[in-house]
Amino acid sequence: MRTQPVFVRARRAFTLIELLVVIAIIAVLIGLLLPAVQKVREAASRMQCGNNLKQIGLAMHSFHDRNEGFPPGYYDVAPWPYDDQGPGWGWAAFLLADLEQDNLQRRIAFNTNVGNNSAPIVSARGAFLKSFYCPSDRQVNTFTAKDGGSQSWILAQSSYVACNGNDGVDDFSTPPHTGAFVRATRGFRIADITDGLSNTFFIGERCTTMAQPTWAGVLTGAQVPSVRAPGSFSGGSALVLGHCGPHLPNDTIVTDADALSSAHIGGVQFLFGDGSVRMIGNSIGQTVYDALATRAGGEPVGGDY
Length: 305
Known about the structure:
4-stranded antiparallel sheet, alpha+beta, 5-stranded mixed sheet, 12 strands
């Protein structure tokens, strides 16, 4: 019996040049896709940050309705111009119950210093809360704050600080600050914000590339290091407060630790007194930016911002 020959077709392999072309095409596609993915991710993070600020705004007004005033920038029994004496709990600590953090707020004795080493206070001040964190920023959860000596404390990370005006937050040599939040035993009322709630900054961002804020409060004697200018420090007030002028948002020449900045491209998000949230661009006019930072300056605010 005669057998038929079997023909096997030889497979043709990729040549080196073809393989390199395919790799190059894939690399180009990834290069085109990556910026789009990053842009979508940043848009989602920016939206979440804005939602955080809106929730803080609702909590602010709920607190005002119950207490006939907003919370202080931070609670301190020493009147201006004396240095801090504590207890130091920050504006955000007073809002915990309005942000569905009742259990955490119950750990806090507001007449006890933030730096107290009792177990409830230690656990409270170190509790990281996503309500106070911008997902565009680097997440560290907790950080260590120090004084000029050997004292140190573990504090929860935050991304938001209250606006106290246009000068350094720990400058006690000038008249009391002009923003909506200052150190005091109680905060301002709506009637005290005579520039109008829609024209007044309440809360703004500060990212970890400038300095590290916390929601908990101000530790008496703490020093806040500037990330951009190693060896430069602001006082403990910078842990919960920030100022606008003489700097602009995301100002690259800022060497202090108590201005406003963000990890967003092009600007910093702010909560206004009326509860609205707006992105303030890096190129906003200095006069307008400074005017928005005051509660009762009477400055005209015009144009888009």
